[in-house]
UniProtKB/TrEMBL annotation, chain A:
It is a multi-pass membrane protein. Pfam families: FtsX. This is ABC3 transporter permease C-terminal domain-containing protein. Residues 207-320, 657-767 form the ABC3 transporter permease C-terminal domain. PANTHER family: BLL1001 PROTEIN (PTHR30287:SF2), MEMBRANE COMPONENT OF PREDICTED ABC SUPERFAMILY METABOLITE UPTAKE TRANSPORTER (PTHR30287). The keyword Iron does not apply. It is found in: Cell membrane. One of its GO terms (cellular component) is plasma membrane. It comes from Streptomyces paradoxus. The chain crosses the membrane at residues 28-52, 200-224, 256-278, 298-319, 340-358, 370-391, 653-672, 701-727, 739-761. The keyword Hydrolase does not apply. Keywords: Cell membrane, Membrane, Transmembrane, Transmembrane helix. It comes from the Bacteria.
Automatic annotation (TrEMBL), chain B:
GO terms for molecular function: DNA binding. It comes from the Bacteria. Gene3D superfamilies: Winged helix-like DNA-binding domain superfamily/Winged helix DNA-binding domain (1.10.10.10). Residues 7-78 form the Transcription regulator PadR N-terminal domain. It comes from Streptomyces paradoxus. It holds the Pfam family PadR. The lineage of its organism: Bacteria, Bacillati, Actinomycetota, Actinomycetes, Kitasatosporales. Keywords: DNA-binding. This is DNA-binding PadR family transcriptional regulator.
TrEMBL record, chain C:
Residues 9-229 form the ABC transporter domain. One of its GO terms (cellular component) is plasma membrane. The keyword Kinase does not apply. This is Putative ABC transport system ATP-binding protein. Pfam families: ABC_tran. The lineage of its organism: Bacteria, Bacillati, Actinomycetota, Actinomycetes, Kitasatosporales.
Length: 776, 174, 229
């Protein structure tokens, strides 16, 4: 077989694919768009690891300080950096205050000159936000003059909100509660090897990749088969004029090749468009620059080779059961009954691969990536292998019913393979999505049930800076818009010995109203002292809170307890209760009137703020007040379920992604559905001629899709839940079926069938017109 | 085949001399058997006697047979009746049918009608044969089938002729 | 054309235009109960369109069609479908049997469309298949039987509802002469014994010879030979 012969046949196939008149073009375009969407998705996915790595690299390059790092002396190449991060609505804003201590102080990446006191440089996204009406409150908080923008080098994403503000006297702040450091360079080599991925997170990422890419692969396989029946007939015509069966196969391969190459081109275009689009969106608070999204060359080449190869392979495989005769296409008579055992091997093999990793999520163990990917893939491929058997077996047993039902069931019995193939993509996508949703739901429970904050009592807390006027600070917060109540709790710890070691007792200082937030007592006047009972946390309170006991307090950081205080005689008992943070405190409760002067200077004060949620931006008004008092303060906002939003966003994203994949598959379903209908034009017309109701025919089309889809979804739900359960066991999470997501995913799948049927109804009605009977 | 009707039909397009009539007949219908002059003469005499033609004029000096004939009203009616009457279905009647069709075209009559009428007549015979076949034994069936196939061949030829009427009209009226 | 007394189905002055082509241009038709009428004419003459109009499958642009005293052109699509289901039967040249259904299921289909139970419908269907000598094919699918057998199954299906009129469009078009004649014999015998009228579109004289009379369609106009001659 000469190369010339090969290339001639392939070329002829390519010509058939592209020059088949309007209809030929539509078909080629359909295939190309299908393959193109798949390719774009593949390229985008291959680019994501690189993009994340690039983000990490930039994050590392701009990192300024870590806890417990060595202090360095002031020099002409040092810089003081103080964190001034803030939150606006639900968006994080990265903030730093800078003060250069000499001419050689290091500039942060992306910044060309230090902002002077009262000035700042901002990221483009922040600049835009501040300029907009929405950003008015934030503008009040970041009350600096904008003198420049931070370049791409200094940002980890196009949508990141960040600023560098100039300041003076920052070294003083470092001694206070502010977080920051004196540094002589940006980028911390110690951070080079960042923390290893959380194994559960790694598992999530791997599964997401496999689950999203598997249906894409199935879809590409379906896309290259668009117009298959017509192609077979064309090939039959070629056989008639003398091409042998090998030649026709090569010509068919050429057609598939042309479609997939066109698809590669379109896919590249889609990818480039998507890349630009990616710059303007933020997913899960992660945004990227287009330049990050570069598929690794190796993977890109792999995609470019694998897609056409797969297209040709699928075509050749599809032609395997088909004998193309000069006078038409003969499908090899009654295919042998499908066997179950090897089909079962695939999902069982998948489970076997995953089994050894059960329970490894907790004890710091690692998941073997290959086993995870292999296991998940085998399970999902198992769906595509099992489905034809399930459809065949079930359909063969379906009994009597109305005419529509009979027509549909008989058709399915005759060609269950075709039906199963159409549904495969949807089944795989749904199975994967259900498993993922279960995993997310389970893991979410793990990570988020920790919060014990009682947000009905307070929603925010903020520390009063040491040494500032507490009363004035409290007054400022009380005056803040939307403030309902400020609870002021100060505390300190006293020891039973003057030395460093010994037992510790907590002392809480607050007025009677605020004390009621931490304990219950029959009466309270200023000057009262209580011992809190009922706390499970400190066992020493009983012993140390006895009247006459002398307790010692430290006057500075040295740990030397030089100030003493004696527990007075009139101490009363109070019943401890959970404070707004969910903490049952023990120790001694003192009203301000009973607090000796010498101790008053040693307490640190925290405010618990309850705001009126009906006041818009109440939280941001509080943050503004805090920033006015101290730009480096970071008020904490409480959530009843911590980071719930984020998981919800991920799950929404997953649902949307799955829905898009399903819609894509639905499109291919529609195409093959219409193709089949056109094949039966004459039959449909004659059925209408002898009086078949249109409703009957429409219903039979619906059944014909709904039965395999129903079975597919059932199988998908089963496999998906099994996979979900295994994944949850792997992360050592209790197995809980997330019914809403099971129902919503299968619901979306079912909805797609309905839409496909509805969309194929108008052409069906058109085909049922008697024109189909005309032979002239 | 009726020579009288044929000659009458030829006269319908305009008066002709006897000699012209023979020439026209030979050219259009007498491919292998040209008409004897005597045949023309005796036929015309009979038609003249029956009032279907009349003498339009005699050319002087040319000889005894230089009479010019024209068709009468009665002659036209006679031709019409002949054309409308189907031939008895029997094998080898193409030449008659052909003559009829050509004449109809020459005289601007609807040749399709002739075909329809003839088909109807053929079908009548075929129905009888079909009926006999259904009731008869194997021998009957074979005999009837033989006749049916011949009749069908005639009809097929008729259909073909009908499909080509336009071309034929062009050819014969050229 | 005047309507002959006792006609079951008549049509007058039918006109139908498909785009640039005029399929029917003033065609008429009439048939008595139990009569077999052949519709003949060259291809493209409009004979199939005439049949489609008569059967209420296609609505003519103008003209009237009367079945049993009812004006067919005034009926809704659903009414005409119901009429076709219960009163008419159909045989086409090919491509009419549902390939997925077995032969007996195919024959039973019109009864099922009329609401009969499956069991009852298939029993009646089998009786008709016996009559058309194809009862041994009941479990086979249309793809597994010969053209002549398939056509007999189709004839059985057209008669299974005891229709008043069977419309047959080139029913023997795809068959050889032996099978074609056998199908015609069975169709006309069955129709005559049930007093069913048959509208038979054909271009073959030997098929038309099974009719009682014929009408000819040419250029969209019909000609009733019985009444002209």
């Amino acid at each position: 077989m000469s190369v010339r012969q090969w290339s001639r046949d392939l070329g002829m196939g390519a010509r058939f694919a592209l020059a088949g008149g309007r209809e030929g073009w539509t078909r080629a375009l359909l295939t190309a768009v299908g393959v193109g969407l798949g390719v774009a998705l593949l390229l985008l996915t291959t680019a994501i690891p690189g993009a994340l790595a690039e983000r990490d690299r930039r994050e590392e390059a701009r990192s300024d300080h870590t806890f417990g790092q060595q202090e360095i002396p002031k020099a002409d190449n040092t810089l003081i950096v103080v964190d001034s991060d803030t939150i606006f609505r639900d968006q994080d804003v990265r903030g730093r205050m800078l003060e250069a201590e000499g001419p050689k102080a290091p500039l942060p990446p992306g910044v060309s000159a230090f902002p002077a006191d009262g000035e700042m440089v901002v990221s483009p996204a922040l600049k835009e936000l501040l300029a907009s009406g929405d950003g008015k409150l934030l503008r009040e908080r970041l009350d600096y003059r904008i003198t420049g923008t931070i370049g791409e080098q200094g940002l980890v994403g196009s949508q990141e909100l960040a600023y560098f503000a100039g300041g003076t006297g920052l070294a003083e702040r470092l001694k206070g509660s502010a977080s920051g450091a004196r540094i002589d360079s940006f980028g911390n080599p110690d951070l080079g090897s960042s923390d290893p991925w959380d194994p559960v997170l790694l598992l999530l990422v791997l599964v997401v990749f496999v689950v999203l890419l598997m249906p894409v692969a199935v879809f590409i396989a379906a896309a290259v088969r668009f117009g298959g029946e017509r192609r077979d007939r064309r090939l039959a015509a070629l056989r008639l004029v003398g091409s042998d069966s090998r030649m026709t196969r090569r010509i068919a391969a050429g057609e598939a090749l042309a479609g997939s190459v066109l698809g590669l081109v379109l896919g590249t275009v889609f990818f480039l468009l998507g890349r630009q689009l990616a710059a303007s969106v933020e997913v899960f608070r992660v945004s990227v620059f287009p330049s990050y999204l570069n598929p690794s060359p190796l993977l890109a080449v792999l995609v470019a080779l694998a897609v056409p190869a797969a297209a040709v392979l699928v075509t050749i495989l599809a032609l395997r059961g088909v004998v193309i005769e000069p006078l038409g296409v003969v499908r090899t008579a009654r295919p042998t009954r499908r066997r179950l055992w090897w089909r079962l091997l695939l999902p069982l093999g998948g489970l076997a691969l995953l089994y050894p990793m059960i329970g490894q999520g907790d004890d710091g163990g690692n998941f073997n990536q290959y086993l995870v990917v292999g296991g998940v893939m085998l399970l999902l491929i198992g769906v595509t292998a099992l489905l034809p058997w399930v459809v065949e077996t079930v359909v063969a047993r379906l009994g009597s019913g109305g005419v529509a039902w009979q027509l549909a069931v008989r058709r399915l019995q005759l060609s269950s393979g075709v039906a199963a193939r159409m549904v495969n993509g949807i089944a795989v996508a749904v199975a994967g999505a259900i498993a993922l949703q279960m995993l997310f739901a389970g893991v979410e429970g793990n990570y988020t049930r920790a919060s014990q904050y009682d947000i009905s009592r307070a929603q925010m807390s903020v520390d009063v800076p040491d040494g500032s006027d507490t009363a004035a600070t409290v007054a400022k917060y009380r005056d803040t818009e939307g403030m309902r109540k400020v609870t002021v709790l100060s505390d300190m710890h006293l020891g039973d010995r003057r030395g460093e070691a010994g037992s510790i007792i907590q002392i809480t200082v607050a007025d009677c109203a605020s004390l009621r937030e931490v304990a219950t007592f029959p009466s309270c006047r200023d000057g009262d002292i209580f011992v809190a009972k009922g706390s499970e946390y400190d066992s020493d309170s009983e012993r140390l809170a006895k009247p006459g006991t002398t307790l010692w307090a430290a006057s500075d950081d040295s740990g030397d307890r030089a100030v003493s205080w004696t527990v007075p005689r009139d101490i009363r008992e109070a019943e401890s209760r959970e404070d707004p943070t969910g903490y049952m405190r023990g120790g001694i409760l003192i009203t301000p009137g009973a607090l000796p002067e010498k101790l008053a200077a040693l307490i640190s004060t925290r405010l618990f703020l309850s705001v009126d949620p009906s006041v818009p931006d109440a939280y941001d008004h509080v943050r503004n007040t805090a920033a006015r008092l101290d730009p480096t303060s970071q008020p904490m906002t409480w959530h009843s379920i911590e980071s719930n939003d984020r998981y919800a966003a991920i799950r929404t994203g997953l649902s949307v992604g799955a829905a898009c994949v399903l819609a894509l598959i639905g499109a291919s379903l529609l195409v093959s559905q219409l193709e089949q209908l056109r094949e039966r034009r004459k039959l449909l017309s004659s059925l209408v001629a002898f009086g078949t109701r249109r409703r009957t025919l429409g219903l039979s089309v619906l059944w014909q899709t709904a039965i395999p889809i129903g079975l597919g979804l059932l199988l998908a739900a089963t496999v998906g839940m099994a996979l979900g359960a295994v994944l949850l066991r792997m992360t050592n999470t209790s197995v809980r079926v997330d019914w809403p997501s099971v129902l919503s995913m299968t619901g979306i799948g079912a909805g797609i069938v309905l839409v496909v049927t509805l969309l194929s109804l108008p052409p069906l009605l058109k085909l049922m017109r008697p024109d189909g009977l005309r032979t002239e | 085949m009726s020579i009288g009707h044929t000659l009458l039909g030829l006269l319908e397009s305009g008066p002709r001399h006897g000699y012209d009539l023979k020439r026209a007949f030979d050219e259009k219908f007498g491919h292998d058997r040209p008409l004897h002059y005597g045949q023309v003469y005796s036929t015309m005499s009979r038609l003249l006697k029956n009032g279907l033609v009349e003498v339009d004029g005699i050319e002087a000096g040319g000889g005894p047979e230089r009479k010019r004939y024209a068709i009468t009203e009665a002659g036209v009616t006679d031709v019409a009746r002949w054309l409308a009457t189907p031939e008895k279905p029997e094998p080898y009647l193409q030449s008659t049918l052909y003559t009829k069709v050509v004449l109809a075209l020459l005289t601007h009559r609807d040749a399709g009608d002739i075909l329809d009428t003839q088909r109807s007549e053929h079908l009548r015979s075929m129905r009888i044969l079909t009926d006999r076949k259904r009731k008869g034994d194997l021998a009957d069936q074979l005999i009837c089938d033989h006749a049916l196939f011949h009749l069908e061949a005639d009809l097929r030829w008729l259909e073909l002729a009908a499909a080509r009427l336009d071309k034929l009209r062009e050819a014969v009226t050229r | 054309m005047t309507i002959p007394a006792g006609s079951l189905l008549t049509a007058q002055d039918l006109r139908k235009v498909y785009g640039p082509t005029t399929a029917l241009d003033g065609a008429g038709f009439s048939i008595h109960p139990g009569e077999v009428v052949a519709v003949m004419g060259p291809s493209g003459s409009g004979k199939s369109t005439l049949l489609h109009c008569l059967a209420g499958i296609v609505m003519p642009d103008s003209g009237s069609i009367t079945y049993n005293g009812r004006e067919v052109t005034a009926m809704s699509d659903a009414e005409r479908s119901a009429l076709r289901r219960s009163e008419f039967g159909f045989v086409f040249q090919f491509g009419q049997l549902v390939p997925e259904l077995t032969c007996v299921e195919n024959v039973a289909l019109p009864l099922r469309l009329n609401g009969s139970s499956r069991k009852e419908a298939e029993r009646t269907a089998l009786a008709w298949m016996e009559r058309l000598e194809v009862d041994d094919l009941r479990k086979k699918r249309p793809g597994e039987v010969s053209g002549g057998q398939g056509q007999r199954v189709a004839v059985a299906r057209s008669l299974v509802t005891n229709p008043r009129v069977v419309f047959a469009d080139e029913p023997t078009g795809a068959l050889d002469s032996f099978n074609g004649e056998r199908v015609m014999e069975l169709l006309t015998d069955a129709a005559r014994s049930a007093n069913t009228a048959v509208v038979l579109v054909t271009h073959e004289a030997r098929v038309a010879a099974y009719s009682d009379r014929e009408i000819v369609v040419r250029d969209g106009k019909s000609r009733d030979m019985e009444r002209v001659v």
